[in-house]
Input
Amino acid sequence: MNAWKCAKCGAILGYQDGDCVRIKYKDLYVTISCLVGVASIDRVCRKCGYVNVLLLKRKKPAQTVTSLREVVETIGNDVLIQK
Ligand SMILES: [Zn+2]
Output
């Protein structure tokens, strides 16, 4: 797991583990995973305001998904869908 640091001031923005990024702030904890292809994450640094961009690439071969249900089943039980 590598620290994702602000390109301007070096503050830690999150932690990257391959095709997954974890961002924590107080009681907010977010995990972003790239399921297919490439994902772009923009994160404004809380310390200096610089807009950092991180590209996540899918490590495993891209998979074809046919429905949201299949995506959720791929991710597992860590997903809560709110209506
Ligand atoms: Zn910064």
Observations:
- The longest helix spans residues 68-75.
- The radius of gyration is 14 Å.
